[in-house]
Design brief:
By secondary structure, the chain is of the alpha/beta class. It is 35% helix and 24% strand. A six-stranded parallel sheet has the order 3-2-1-4-5-8, with helices on both faces. Helix 2 links the parallel strand 2 and strand 3. The longest helix has 17 residues. The chain starts with 7 loop residues before the first strand and ends with a helix.
């Protein structure tokens, strides 16, 4: 299969509500983006009563196949960047240990195997956090293993782990500049 004319952003949503609405807003600001929606993310979209207001060029892939068939596009140069945001502690742990049994973890694995840059917005990054639940703000206390896995993920090749919305926005802007400047 020949290389595509305009490589795309890949964005994987997991089952985290941590800055979920803000991540959806950021997706809306990208051109040529494919959204990978896990089964858990599908539930979160409904719990948070969100509409997916996506750019016209966006495509949505849902976690409906056992083999995560859409990941094959990584082999053919369809994607220049994968964004995994927001990423649950479960997704981060699976990525760290090479488990790819959901659409999000599978696209992360394939991005790595195909040397596609990845930006991961990890949810569990501090011993105490405030996050939005469907009924309002709550405090959460990530476990030591969750924090350790986030640190481990930072050592992965071509992977940038961000811990705040500001860092995610900056990482997206930086990647846009890299792509523009070649």
């Amino acid at each position: 299969m020949p290389k595509v004319k305009t490589p795309r952003w890949g964005w994987a949503l997991t089952g985290s509500g941590h800055f979920f609405k803000e991540c959806l807003d950021m997706i809306g600001g990208l051109e040529h983006v494919d959204l990978f929606v896990t089964r858990a993310a599908d539930e979160v979209v409904r719990m948070y009563k969100q509409e997916l207001a996506l750019p016209k060029s966006a495509r949505v892939f849902r976690d409906t196949t056992a083999s995560a068939a859409p990941v094959g596009n990584f082999y053919y140069g369809v994607y220049h960047t994968l964004v995994l945001a927001p990423a649950t502690s479960n997704t981060v742990a699976k990525c760290v240990f090479g488990i790819s049994d959901t659409l999000a973890t599978n696209v992360f694995a394939q991005a790595g195997k195909c040397r596609v840059a990845a930006i991961v917005f990890a949810c569990d990054t501090a011993p105490e956090l405030e996050t939005e639940a469907p009924k309002g703000m709550v405090k959460v206390y990530p476990r030591r293993i969750d924090l350790e896995n986030t640190e481990r993920l930072k050592s992965f090749e071509a992977t940038r782990v961000v811990e705040t919305l500001a860092e995610l926005s900056e990482a997206l802007d930086r990647r846009k500049r890299e792509l523009r400047d070649g």
